[in-house]
Amino acid sequence: MTQALTKERPGGVRAEASPGAGDALVIRPVRRGDLDLVIAIDATVTGLEKRKYWASVYRRYGASDRSGQQFLVALAQGHVVGFVIGEVRDWEFGSPPCGWVFAIDVHPQARLGGIGTRLLEAISAGFRRAGVRKVRTMLARDNALILSFFRSQGMMAGPLISLEMDLGAEPGHAARGGRPR
Q: Distance between CA 130 and CA 151 in Å, rounded?
């Protein structure tokens, strides 16, 4: 049995470190110095380097002491190998407050070692401390890898349906030639 060590940080977020078999995996709040490795993991997986986007995410979730917001990283041998980001959202779409995970990723060379599971467990623990009892996420329907991961963690289709439409160039017109109403 593995025992978790926790340390409180400002805003009530806890860093968790659990020694496991072999190398210790540390899960803790992101630091500014971690951002380049987070960007590199995302670029490896998506094929796009989104430096401005990640700087904005860091300012909102990593450098903030707002309750309910979390940006956690997983470190193996002192190197960032994964991350998870989420927040508690209140009454969106008529839903009681719940935790939303909007980003989770593990470097492809570090997968299948339980790191994603540990990241999801850590952010879920933060959501529980914030008083919510449900966690949600959205993903692309063709992303079989992340869908399989979330299903392996016990997640299933929820009560919400995602809808979208293209915005036409002219205000008041739908993209498919619709007329203003």
A: 24
Residue whose structure tokens are 């803790």? 28
> Are the C-beta atoms of residues 41 and 82 closer than 8 Å to each other?
yes
Tokens of 89: 């959202």
Q: Domains, the chain, ranges and CATH?
A: 5-152 (3.40.630.30)
Residue 47, sorted as left (phi over 0), alpha (psi -120 to 50) or beta, turns out to be: left
Structure confidence by residue, pLDDT tens digits, 73-131: 999 999 999 999 999 988 777 788 899 999 999 999 999 999 999 999 999 999 999 99
Closest CA to 124 of 155, 93, 157, 92: 155
Closest CA to 72 of 98, 40, 38, 107: 38
pTM above 0.90, yes or no: no
CB 165 within 8 A of CB 174: yes
